[in-house]
Write a structure and sequence with these properties.
α8 (176-186) runs parallel beside α9 (205-212). A seven-stranded mixed beta sheet has the order 8-7-6-9-10-11-12. With 355 residues, the protein is an alpha/beta fold. The protein has 13 helices and twelve strands. Bound molecules: glycinamide ribonucleotide. Glycinamide ribonucleotide is lined by residues 171, 173-178, 253-254, 274-276, 301, 337, 340.
Length: 355
């Protein structure tokens, strides 16, 4: 255990006992706190006001790197502890090495545990929630200060400005658009690289394409069997993965789950989707079948920004394809896919160039 400004978990656990006997309350929170900003200060002041002794558990340097990506933490564990201890409302700082805070919560058994507001009580991981409930620990979710985050601060400082721009592709299916995107990246046509593939389907073809191009492919548990839905915890995990990989643009390609807050705000204007129709015609499911059923002579694809509606965001590009007589949905889908593979990487390249 490093010395200096850090307390040991045993010291804090003993302090908790003393406080409990005096009818006073220990508040615990945790995080990386690797670049202290006013959002942290306000959050910690609010947390401290909930009880009588505020303990901040900070991730060790290795787990910050694992959670937030290369180049993090900006400050090492001793420096982070020193800065936090300089805040008058922080009483103790401890370090823990796991990705998750479950171990440190169990060891300290605080009276109150607080999290920042991109979490809801439901988005705490099940294991953490179960532990907190079992130990009768009060959970408080505190609101974060909009625009005051470490990633926002780093962006404003233009750290990594000259670095390669990074794209993540989210898909649930065969992954032909992801493949087109990775091919464009490999051939230098994207102006950035596909750095991450995420899917909600463990055996989706998109993972094979990821492997073929040597791009990390990760399966996200949607957390629910409800069609098209993601739990708050799943949304949080996606956001964590995107931020840990320093993703600039999120590309949806046949991702059959609804993407919503806080993901939309975190990547505002930087989440794209491709849809197999000339929007606003045929949003939602069965777009290709509906074009055939309606007897349309022209179909196509639309690349658009994602908003909170169903395929309603600003349209950035449309490509038309003919509907031939006798087309089956499969044949027309394949023609639309070809158009998508041409158009989608070009739109992503334009957006990356404008960042
Ligand atoms: C694409 O045709 C895309 O337009 C469609 O899923 C297919 C994915 O193919 N997206 C939607 O229907 C979204 N509403 P892929 O897995 O081969 O890229």
């Amino acid at each position: 255990m490093p010395q200096g400004y850090l307390s040991s978990i045993e010291e804090v656990a003993a302090a908790r006992e003393d406080l409990g006997r005096e009818g006073r309350k220990l508040v615990l929170t945790n995080g990386a706190f690797d670049l202290l900003h006013v959002g942290h200060v306000r959050y910690l002041r609010e947390a401290a006001a909930l009880g009588d002794c505020l303990v901040v558990a900070i991730n060790g340097d290795d787990s910050v790197r694992e959670l937030k990506g290369e180049g993090r933490p900006v400050n090492g564990v001793e420096d982070r502890a020193e800065m936090l201890c300089a805040l008058e409302f922080v009483d103790r700082v401890v370090v823990f090495e796991d990705r998750r805070a479950t171990g440190v919560i169990e060891a300290i058994q605080p009276h109150i545990y607080t999290k920042g507001g991109d979490y809801t009580a439901d988005s705490l991981i099940d294991e953490e929630k179960a532990l907190l409930d079992r130990l009768g620990i009060q959970i408080e979710i505190l609101s974060l200060v909009p625009g005051k985050s470490t990633s926002e601060t780093l962006k404003q400082m233009s750290v990594g400005k000259d670095a390669v721009k990074k794209v993540a592709v989210l898909g649930s299916g065969k992954g032909s658009n992801a493949e087109a995107m990775m091919r464009a990246s490999a051939e230098g046509r994207l102006g950035g690289e596909v750095a991450l593939i995420l899917t909600d389907v463990p055996d989706a073809g998109i993972l094979d394409h990821a492997e073929a191009f040597g791009v990390p492919g990760i399966v996200i548990d949607p957390g629910t069997t409800k069609k098209g839905r993601l739990t708050d915890a799943a949304i949080k995990e996606i956001l964590d993965r995107l931020q840990a990989a320093s993703i600039d643009i999120v590309v949806l390609a046949g991702f059959m789950r609804i993407v919503r807050e806080p993901l939309l705000s975190a990547f505002e204007g930087r989440i794209l989707n491709v849809h197999p129709s000339l929007l606003p015609k045929y949003p939602g499911l069965r777009a290709v079948e509906r074009a055939i059923e309606a007897g349309d002579s022209v179909a196509g694809c639309s690349v658009h920004l994602i908003d909170s509606g169903m395929d309603t965001g600003e349209i950035l590009r449309q490509e038309e394809v003919p509907v031939e007589s006798g087309d089956t949905p499969e044949v027309l889908q394949a023609r639309i896919n070809d158009a998508e593979h041409r158009a989608y990487p070009e739109v992503v390249a334009e957006l990356l160039a404008a960042l």
